[in-house]
Amino acid sequence: MTSPPHTPPLPRLFKAVVVTGIAVGAAHLVLSDTLRFALVGQASAALGTPTGYGEAQVFTTALLNTALVMPLVLWTGMRLSGERQPAAMVLVGSVGWIITVWNGSDGLDDRFGAVLPLRSLALVVGVTALASLVRRRPSPAPSAPSVPADPSAPIRPGNVSETTPAS
To answer: Distance (Å, rounded) from C-alpha 32 to C-alpha 108?
Structure first.
């Protein structure tokens, strides 16, 4: 069974840009909505009616959720689009997303509806899409040992060794 040929670089890059854009949007949505719980918890605690969500608990949950959403959406999106080896893209995208959130989370934590800097988001999409072009070379299939055409053929005298019984 032969494997299908690789997707040419340009269509793969286009698929990667689309999938990464969706992944960044989904991860950003999860992050901002979860951080909104932290702001609501702060406001309700200040008014004397705490919601039960601690600020540190909600912030940690937001970061973990967004760190899990990004690789899941990248992997699933590329597999659904027919690509077989999205591992490098998933790794680069996940690390890039974590760094972007790390650098921009202060602005998100301060107000409702905040968005990470668009330059950072565009950089994550671009670098992740370029990482989709990195592929492992498929390992060559092991060749099967050659079988003699007629196994009942007698051994030729020139091929007899000391360990082969004479015929």
So the answer is: 7
